[in-house]
Each structure stands twice: as structure tokens, then as C-alpha cells.
Design goal:
The structure is a single chain. Strand 27, helix 17 and strand 28 form a beta-alpha-beta unit. The chain folds into 6 domains: about 30 residues; about 140 residues, Immunoglobulin-like; about 180 residues; about 100 residues, Beta-Lactamase; about 160 residues, Reverse transcriptase/Diguanylate cyclase domain (Alpha-Beta Plaits, 2-Layer Sandwich); about 270 residues, Alpha-Beta Barrel (TIM Barrel), CATH 3.20.20.450. An 8-stranded mixed barrel has the order 29-30-32-33-34-35-36-37. The N and C termini lie far apart (about 130 Å). It is an alpha+beta fold. The protein contains 30 helices and 37 strands. Helix 7 packs antiparallel against helix 8 and helix 17 packs across helix 18.
């Protein structure tokens, strides 16, 4: 009986629609009389008279009509001023006669008896009176049965491209025609609104904005067709106010243009990028926006020519692109859409062309109603074809999805609200070790640990935005398994995925362990031990004493060099095990470097911690370590410190390391309690380093100046060396050596040197008028600064800023620094000499190669090392060396300065040896800048009577000779 079902299906789905379509076409082509009228209109010849000034009276107009020729139709040419027309009344047909004025553009009409000028009726779009009434899209005049006039005189106003004409009807035929008109309008409005409603329902069901766009376009298409047949004055049986009509028509046409292009882009968006001349499409869209603006702003008479131009251009552009799409082989969608566009074009433009050129383009059967419905059906056909294409694509995608669902390595599942497994792919069943064939009542918690169902619900409530790590059943080998769960609620069910991340979790746990632990010894690494140390320091106090031990293995690097790193690593593991076995509970073992360990011993006094560390050192030293067949003897040293509140981790580690270095020199274990002086000094030094790191220059820095006295003319000049001094926050002077060591350790010497140099030049520039006796000012530079290109550039910029006092500057470079990189030193000296700066070699004579390199360096001053000067009177050989240096300097045109002169006897010996300048406590210690400004020479600051007497003798001996080398 299957053939019966096929026959019924064929009749229902093929034969019946074909009959309906054939019948509809027959009705349209044969113009079957659906209204029941029995006659046709007779066109009447009319005489038309324009009244541009609107001043003519009926009598005047009637008198002028004899001059006008009779025509069947007359175009207003968009004029909105009154027109007079004389319409003859056919005498044989006066009984039950009606005269139709069919123009839909007519706004007001008044008619008179052409002979007696008696008013017969008046009408506008709001109401009618007398024999005039609204008929179809225009008006109709009912001719009285008795005393019918020979002619009718009418005055009418029009809006838009009106075509004035008149037709004679029998009253019954006109009424029948009106019924047919209303039928056509109802058919148009009902059919397209039904299609639009159906399309909106499809849009809601499919959640596709394209269908909503189609529905809006169908409504706009209906309104455009209504304009053509004059039914746009109504909307769903309601008459619209006449004042609304002009703007509504303009906006309707503009929106229809924009909607048509939007629908076009929606249908063919995937094909348009393949076609060149995109600028044409863009221009047509922009012109649509211009048309909408004109519809809102321009009057109807000005809007029409703009509309004709833009719509014509837009249709040509769209047809061009449709042709290109057809040629590209996409005709299933393009062909019906193109045909619909042509029908709309013919239907919407026929009346305009007829009004402008008096030429009827459309056949009677192809009226505006059938054109609107046909074009809408064709567009729906294009959409249906696209929907079919998309449906085929969805079916293909569903097939691929089913294949992917079965083959994907991730576990996929669907659960109901009770946790029953409704669907599952093979991967999920393998992960959870489920039977290959699904059972009737499988539940989620049957295959996972308790609580797994709660985690699924939590994941589903989050909407799939966050993954949850879910612990699964142990693996075949007993290893722990982890899954990544993602779930979401869909239609009352829970869809989700499960991914095996056991290896990733294990790797992550290992990485987390390695983030704080050493991979070789599995003790904590620097990061881990520093965090534990910080926590211990925060909790340190009188009742919670913690000790930090720094342990270092002796000669461990030889093991790596002689036996390889693998042996060394195995040895470190055994060392860590011995240390851990000896440490009390709660202690932390960390490894800093290859042979360095940190031991944090919590809640243990220093004495007890020292005993524990001695046991550790003994366990390391007393029992050899065995690696394979080899035996290794190791020794270690340890430094211990008590942790105090407020101590920084870096301070604690550095101080414990210092104690360990001391322990390696002999005692093997050195412990600093919290009151040890060396511990305080080390902490203060580290804090000073941090201070130097934090700012450009610490607030406690200030300058001091030690006089340098000429031995040729002691009272003739005021020269001095600028020295740096520093006070802490309590106003106590910090030893200069400690401050400089901190600066060297922190890499901040260039910062300090730059600060000293800038402050010195600024001070000299500020007090230049009071320093007329100053010949030079010495400033010492460190070796690290000399090799810092940024520092050198900063020095040169500073010298340019203070160019007026730069020649007073004499920069001191130590002999060791100068000889470390001779090329850099020569280049630096050359650049500074260009600014008039003198150069001095400091600590000259302390090395062994100074004399051989003197010829390479363009220095003006040799500053003899203080170790030769301090014991000059007790060691005659020193005097001989100083004399040799002075003679060498004089022969090379250089000056000499002797520092560390501490008594009058030394100063006298230096003067006898020919030294040019002397500096030291014998003259004066370092002075404040204010003190320097109060004196006129360095000799005024001497306080030792013997030195003062010597100065007087030297002053009487002669004046200072001119400076050499300048």
C-alpha cells in the first residue's frame, strides 16, 4: 500500500499547488470580473485651464474655456496650483450617469453646472458634499437624472505627478468597479500582511534577523504598491489624515529603497566580495541615505526628481550585480530576486512614466496588485532557496558533528536533572571505565567519587564560563586521575564535556613544587627559603627565637670537576638527607647554590641551634659519602645568626653568609647573637645599600672640604679637595668607608660621584666672587664611574652648564683605575681637558708600573700616595722615593700634591723635597663649605704653632711660581 501513500502525497504537495497557481494566473491574465461590474468607462474629452495665480472665478473660467482645446488627458507637470476643467455630459447616458475624476493625486475638487454655474458638489480627502464623493483613488460626480447639464465645470488641486482625465460610467458599473478596487486593495494588504506575519513567526522561531528583514520589506512593498493604486490613504481599513500623505509617501519610498538594498546584501553578502566595483554598491547605499534625508527635509515637488534619479541609479547598480552573480553560477537565488526586482521596477515606475510621457508601460493584467504580490512571492522563493541551501549545510554539519561526537578524544555527555546519563560518546565511556553499551539507568555518580554530581550542577549553573577540576577514579596503576569538567544547561538538560588532565595536574603539581624547591636536593630553593624566612622574621620576638644558619661545603666544586655533575648531584642529595635527618621538626632546609645551604631553625635559642649545627657538621665530616664504588669525605662550615624583628631577608642571608666566611677561616662554626656589634654593623651597611638604591642621592649626604696648601706661597691661594660625608636619619655621621663600600656594593658609585660633582660645581658657581684666590678644586672619581658611559655623558653636560667654573676642577683618578683600562682613561681625560678640567693621578707610588705609563696619560698633577708621606720622617727611603717622584713630575711639567701630612716635621721635609702642595691634618682637617668661604688661604686654617711658624718661613722664602702644564 505504499504506492497509495505516495499518490496522496503527490496530490497534496504537487498537484494541488499547481492547480492553485494555474487558477491564479488565469484570473490575473484573463481579468476575471471579481467585482461583478457590467460596463466599462468611456473616456471623456476635457478642456483644461491652468490657474497659476488662483484668482479665477467660475464665471471667468467658463468664459475662457472656449479657447482651450479638448484633450483626453492633461499632465499637471507637478504644479500644485488650481486647474479648471470642462467635462461634457453624454446626453443619451444621463440616466444613472456618473463622471469619474480618477487621479489619486487630486486633493480638492469643486464642480458647477457649466451653464447656470450652480454648485453641484465639493470634496477633499477629509469629506465630501453635494453630488461629489470619493471613488477609488479619486472622486466621482453623480449626474442628476433630471435636468442634467450639458457640461460640468470643475476646479481641482493636485499634488505630485498628476494626470487630469475624466471618464463616464453608469452608476452601477462604477459601484462594481469600486468593489473590485477595494477587493484588489484588500487582496494586496491582506496577502502581504499575512506573508509578513508568517515571516515574522519564522524569524522568531529561527532566531534569524533575515526573516524579520524580509517581513519589513514585504510591508514596505505593500505600501509602495498602495501608492501606485492610490490606496495608501488607508491602512488596515482606516483613512489616514491628508496632511500625512506627502511625507508618508516620500519616507515610504526612501525606506523601501534602503530595505531593498539591505535585503540584497543579506541574500548575496557571500557573493558580493567576489565582484569588483564595490564602490558602485557603496555609492548606491550612500545615495539611499541621501534619499531618506531628502524625504524628511524636501517638499514633494523637489523630492520627486531626486527620487527618480537615485532609484533609477540604484536599480541599474543592483541589476548589474545580479547579472554578475548569475554569470558566476549562483542563479538559484539571484534569478527569482532579479525577476522580482524587475516586476517591482515595472509596477512602481509605470504610473510615473505614464504621467511624464503619456505612455502606458504595463499590460492591464499586470497591475500594481499582482506585481506587488508576485515580486513578494519571488523574493520569498529566493529566501526559501537560501533556506534550503542553509538546511543542506546544517545537515552536512550535523553529520560531521555526529562523526566528531563519536571520534573526539574529549568525553561528551548529556544528563537530565536527576543525574541520569542520556547520551555519552565513546571517549567518556573509556575515561570512566563504563560498559561499551549504554545501560538503561546509568547515573553520573555510579562512575565517579561522591560529590561529583554536585560539581556538575555547580558548573552548569555557571553557564559553562568556568571549568572545574574534578577528581576521578584511580587509574589502572593506582595513580590519581583528574578531569576538567565544563557543563551548561540547555533546554532543561545538562550538556558537558570531560577532559582527562591527570598528566597536566601532575606536571602542575611538580612545577609548583619546583617553584619553591630545588630539583636536585628537593630542599627549598632561594624563593621558597626567602618566603619562609620572611614569615619567621615577622613572627620573631623574645618568646619565639629563630636562628638562620648558612652552611657551605668545602671544595665541593672539585667533585663536579673531577667526577662530573651527576656524581655531584647525587652527593648533594645525600648531604641534604643528612641535614634534614638532624634538623628538629618545623625547621626548613634550603639550597642557594651548588654547595650552599640555608637552615631555618624555628623556636630554638642560639645555643641550642649551635649544638644542632655542630651535630650536622659532624655527621657530614665523620662518615664518608658513598656514590657507587667511590667514597667522598666532605667538610662544611656554618655561620649562625639570631633573627630579630624588622630584619630584612636579604640582611639576614648576607649576615649569615659573612659569619660562614669567618667560620671557614678556622673555627668551622661562628654564631652572632642579636646583640653582636658586627651584626648591627652589617645590618646598617645593608640598610645603607637599600637607601642608595631607592633615591637619586640620600638626604644625609653633604660636602666637606679639606684645604690643600701651597708650599711655595702658603698664603697666596685657597685650594681644597671636596669630600663626601653622610649622616643617618638620627643625625649621626656614618663612617665614610662604610658609605663608600655600600655604594660600591649596590652599584651606586656613579650616582654618588655625579651628585658630588654637580653640587661642587653649583657651589663654586654660586660663590665664585668669594673664591678669587682658589686655583683648583680636587674631586675624586671612582673606577666604576669612569667606565660608565652614562656617567661620562652626564659629567660633560654638567661641565657645559657650569662652564665658567669648570677650569677650577681637578678630577682625581687612582693609579690602579687609570692603568686598568688605559684606552678608556686616555679618552676620558681628553674629553674633559676640552672643557678646561685638570686631571690628577691619585695614590701615585702605591703601584709598581706607574712610571712606565706616565707618558701615556695627560695628567697635570701627581698626588703622592699617603702611605709614603705618613712615615716620611721615620723612613728615609720614603723620602728618597718622594724626591724621585717630585723630580720626575718636574721634568714632565707636572705638579705634585702630598696627602696625609700629619705634623710640621713632615711638611718641612716635603717642602725640602720640592713638593708643590701639601694636604693633611697638619694643615687642617676637612672643613665645612661655610668655613672655606671665611678664609682667603689654606694657611689661615692651620692651628699647630710649629706648622704656623713653618708657614711664615715658607711665605718669606718666595711666591708661588706660575702653574705648569696650563
Amino acid at each position: 500500500m505504499r504506492w497509495v501513500d505516495r499518490l496522496l502525497w503527490w496530490c497534496a504537495c504537487v498537484l494541488t499547488p499547481a492547480i492553485v497557481i494555474a487558477f491564479s494566473l488565469a484570473v490575473a491574465v484573463l481579468d476575471v470580473d471579481v467585482g461583478g461590474h457590467t460596463g466599462t468607462p468611456r473616456p471623456l474629452p476635457i478642456r483644461v485651464l491652468a490657474d497659476p495665480d488662483a484668482r479665477l472665478t467660475p464665471a471667468q473660467a467658463a468664459g475662457l474655456m472656449d479657447r482651450q482645446e479638448s484633450v483626453l488627458a492633461h499632465s499637471t507637470r507637478l504644479a500644485e496650483t488650481p486647474f479648471w476643467l470642462r467635462v461634457p455630459v453624454p446626453m443619451p447616458d444621463t440616466r444613472r450617469l456618473a463622471i469619474e475624476l480618477p487621479s489619486r493625486h487630486a486633493q480638492t475638487v469643486t464642480c458647477w453646472n457649466a451653464e447656470t454655474l450652480a454648485e453641484m458638489g465639493s470634496a477633499d480627502r477629509i469629506g465630501t458634499s453635494g453630488a461629489l464623493r470619493a471613488a477609488k483613488s479619486g472622486f466621482a460626480l453623480t449626474v442628476p437624472n433630471e435636468e442634467a447639464p450639458e457640461a460640468v465645470l470643475c476646479r481641482a488641486r493636485y499634488a505630485g505627478p498628476a494626470n487630469i482625465s475624466a471618464a463616464a460610467w453608469s452608476r452601477d458599473a462604477l459601484l462594481a468597479s469600486e468593489r473590485g478596487y477595494r477587493y484588489s486593495a484588500g487582496l494586496l494588504e491582506g496577502a502581504l500582511l499575512s506573508l509578513a506575519a508568517l515571516t515574522i513567526v519564522m524569524a522568531l522561531l529561527a532566531r534569524d534577523g533575515g526573516y524579520l528583514l524580509l517581513a519589513v520589506w514585504l510591508i514596505a512593498n505593500m505600501r509602495v504598491a498602495s501608492i501606485s493604486i492610490g490606496w495608501d490613504t488607508h491602512w488596515m481599513g482606516t483613512t489616514l489624515p491628508p496632511d500625512w500623505m506627502a511625507p508618508l509617501r516620500q519616507i515610504t519610498i526612501a525606506l523601501h529603497y534602503l530595505l531593498t538594498y539591505t535585503l540584497f546584501a543579506r541574500l548575496f553578502g557571500e557573493h558580493l566580495p567576489q565582484i569588483r566595483a564595490h564602490w558602485l554598491l557603496l555609492l548606491a547605499k550612500l545615495l539611499g541615505l541621501a534619499l531618506l534625508a531628502a524625504a524628511v527635509l524636501a517638499p514633494f515637488a523637489e523630492f520627486l526628481p531626486v527620487m527618480w534619479a537615485i532609484v533609477g541609479f540604484g536599480i541599474v547598480v543592483m541589476l548589474h550585480f545580479l547579472a554578475r552573480i548569475l554569470l558566476a553560477g549562483h542563479g538559484r537565488t539571484a534569478a527569482p530576486y532579479g525577476l522580482a526586482l524587475i516586476i517591482v521596477l515595472l509596477a512602481s515606475s509605470s504610473e510615473v512614466i505614464a504621467a511624464a510621457f503619456d505612455f502606458r508601460l504595463l499590460l492591464e493584467a499586470l497591475n500594481s496588485v499582482t506585481a506587488a504580490i508576485a515580486s513578494s512571492l519571488l523574493v520569498i522563493l529566493a529566501f526559501a532557496n537560501r533556506m534550503r541551501t542553509e538546511q543542506q549545510a546544517r545537515r552536512t554539519a550535523q553529520t560531521a558533528l555526529r562523526r566528531t561526537y563519536g571520534n573526539t578524544p574529549a568525553g561528551l555527555f548529556t544528563l537530565d536533572t536527576e543525574g541520569r546519563i542520556l547520551r555519552s560518546n565513546p571517549a567518556l565511556r573509556r575515561m570512566l571505565r563504563m560498559p561499551e553499551s549504554p545501560g538503561d539507568d546509568e547515573r553520573w555518580e555510579d562512575f565517579l567519587p561522591p560529590g561529583a554530581w554536585d560539581q556538575v550542577r555547580i558548573a552548569a549553573d555557571r553557564g559553562g564560563h568556568r571549568d572545574i577540576e574534578l577528581r576521578g577514579p584511580d587509574g589502572p596503576g593506582g595513580g590519581q586521575r583528574w578531569f576538567l569538567l565544563r557543563a551548561d544547561r540547555m533546554g532543561g538538560l545538562i550538556d558537558g564535556s570531560l577532559q582527562d588532565i591527570s598528566e597536566r595536574v601532575a606536571a602542575t603539581q611538580r612545577l609548583r613544587f619546583l617553584a619553591d624547591h630545588d630539583s636536585v636536593s628537593e630542599a627549598m630553593n632561594r624563593r621558597g627559603i626567602e618566603r619562609a624566612l620572611g614569615e619567621a622574621i615577622d613572627g620573631a620576638g623574645e618568646h619565639h627565637g629563630h636562628v638562620l644558619a648558612y652552611l657551605n661545603l668545602d671544595r665541593f666544586r672539585l667533585v663536579n670537576e673531577l667526577y662530573g655533575f651527576e656524581t655531584g648531584d647525587n652527593l648533594l642529595k645525600q648531604v641534604a638527607l643528612r641535614i634534614s635527618a638532624t634538623l628538629p621538626p618545623g625547621s626548613v632546609l634550603g639550597r642557594l647554590g651548588s654547595d650552599e645551604f640555608l637552615l631555618l631553625i624555628r623556636d630554638t635559642p642560639l645555643v641550642a641551634a649551635s649544638r644542632i649545627c655542630r651535630q650536622i657538621l659532624a655527621r657530614i665530616a665523620d662518615t664518608p659519602f658513598r656514590i657507587g664504588n667511590q667514597s667522598f669525605d666532605l667538610r662544611a662550615a656554618a655561620g649562625l645568626i639570631e633573627l630579630t624583628p624588622g630584619m630584612r631577608t636579604a640582611e639576614a642571608i648576607s649576615t649569615a653568609q659573612r659569619a660562614c666566611r669567618e667560620a671557614k677561616r678556622g673555627p668551622r662554626l661562628v654564631a652572632y647573637d642579636r646583640n653582636a656589634d658586627i651584626l648591627g654593623e652589617r645590618i646598617e651597611e645593608l640598610r645603607l645599600i637599600k637607601t642608595l638604591d631607592s633615591v637619586d642621592a640620600p638626604s644625609g649626604l653633604h660636602l666637606a672640604m679639606q684645604p690643600i696648601m701651597s708650599l711655595h706661597d702658603p698664603e697666596g691661594s685657597l685650594n681644597f679637595e671636596v669630600l663626601m660625608r653622610m649622616r643617618n636619619d638620627d643625625g649621626i655621621d656614618v663612617p665614610v668607608g662604610r658609605a663608600l663600600a655600600a655604594a660600591e656594593a649596590s652599584g651606586n658609585m656613579a650616582k654618588i660621584d655625579s651628585w658630588v660633582l654637580t653640587r661642587t660645581l653649583a657651589w663654586l658657581a654660586e660663590h665664585a666672587a668669594r673664591l678669587s684666590a682658589t686655583r683648583f678644586v680636587c674631586v675624586n672619581l671612582s673606577g666604576t664611574s669612569l667606565n660608565d658611559e652614562a656617567f661620562v655623558d652626564n659629567v660633560l653636560r654638567t661641565l657645559e652648564r657650569y662652564s665658567e667654573v669648570a677650569p677650577l676642577l681637578c678630577l682625581e683618578i687612582t693609579e690602579a683605575v687609570a692603568l686598568h683600562d688605559l684606552a678608556t682613561t686616555r679618552r676620558f681625560m681628553s674629553r674633559l681637558k676640552a672643557h678646561g678640567v685638570r686631571m690628577a693621578l691619585d695614590d701615585f707610588g702605591a703601584g709598581f708600573t706607574s712610571f712606565s705609563y706616565l707618558r701615556e696619560l695627560e695628567a697635570e698633577v701627581l698626588k703622592i700616595d699617603g702611605s709614603l708621606i705618613r712615615d716620611l720622617s721615620r723612613h728615609p727611603r720614603n723620602l728618597a722615593i718622594v724626591s724621585a717622584i717630585v723630580n720626575l713630575a718636574q721634568n714632565m711639567g707636572m705638579r705634585t700634591i702630598a696627602e696625609w701630612a700629619e705634623d710640621a716635621e713632615t711638611v718641612a721635609a716635603l717642602a725640602e723635597a720640592g713638593v708643590d702642595y701639601v694636604q693633611g691634618w697638619a694643615i687642617a682637617p676637612a672643613q665645612s663649605p661655610a668655613t672655606i668661604l671665611r678664609v682667603h688661604s689654606a694657611a689661615e686654617l692651620a692651628s699647630d704653632p710649629d706648622v704656623i711658624a713653618l708657614i711664615e718661613r715658607l711665605g718669606a722664602a718666595g711666591r708661588e711660581p706660575p702653574e705648569t702644564g696650563r
